[in-house]
Amino acid sequence: MLLTKRKKYVNRSEFDIRLSGWHRRLNAVANRRNLDLYQLVSLLFREAQFVAVEVVLIGDHRLSRQQRAVYSRIERRLLDMWQSYEQGVIGASDLLDRCSYIYEGL
User: How far is 54 from 49, CA to CA, in rounded Å?
Assistant: First the structure.
């Protein structure tokens, strides 16, 4: 069965999406794609040290996630709409319509 590119993207799990982002970032840190085994082990070791420090910083509330400006604006708009819905200013169908409008352009 053939699936369109859009269908494949929709069926991907959140884990797959985060993992592909991690691979992309790791490739950028490595400055190339195909690493030798020893280079890959060295890179993964440095990454593991970084993750350990990051976990401590997040636990101390001294580090927050990085987010692109466009997604920050989208999240802010969604939160504003959700608050309007909770206050009874807009109904459920209006909330869903407005949310779909935001995601139309992505």
Answer: 9
